[in-house]
Amino acid sequence: MxxxxxxxxxxxxxxxxxxxxxVVTNAELCKLLGISEATVRRDLEWLEKQGVLERxxxxxxxxxxxxxxxxxxxxxxxxxxxxxxxxxxxxxxxEDGDTIFVNSGTTATQVISSIPSRAKVTVVTNNLSAAxxxxxxxxxxxxxxxxxxxxxxxxxxxxxxxxxxxxNANKTFIGADGISLKYGFTVPxxxxxxxxxxxxxxxxxxxxxxxxxxxxxxxxxxxxxxxDEVQMLVTDARLSKIxxxxxxxxxxxxxxxxxxxxxxxxxx
Length: 268
What we know:
By secondary structure, this protein is an alpha/beta fold. It has eleven helices and 17 strands.
């Protein structure tokens, strides 16, 4: 069957497979299409040039475009349990004495919400949602001033950037809308991207991305960091093993939310 397929038919089958599974391996496609690995690699290279996928070591992932920014309330409804778990796991990485930057976004909000009120830390953020959700704050919370951006419920712009330039942090927690091996970490808003890049520039420590599995393979309009600029990704258990391996091969430590707590409970 496979030898009778013309390239357009093979491309369609590869697209269909990716639409279902989001990720494929070369070996899987060789078996599915009955073609050589060399032919698979050529097909994947052609599809990558069309923007359909991104090639990985031994396979490919579906390339998903996020061209516009969803409203904050809409994003908050997506994968809420995963986001809460990611936020709690990320917050556990914060130590007394830390000064941290946190950007806007629903998962980033969960990081701030999970910080113990008595923690001896300083949190600097443009995230209005997080500031409004935190009650009886015992830690120092510095809210950057600036232009209100209602779509993400955050402050951005020149005033926010100028305030940020007066500060330094030893950890930064970034919520990203897209994670791509080729295009790095991306967001749909240029003002947010500019502020996040400045956060990274003024951090003399770990850059930690907090994002659920659905962000893998997504590419949005504005880059905030290359893959090798980030030391850690805190995500959920539904991130594929292939994705984890690809990121870890690029020196990004992948932390699965709740995994450490489950392991401790199992050992008790």
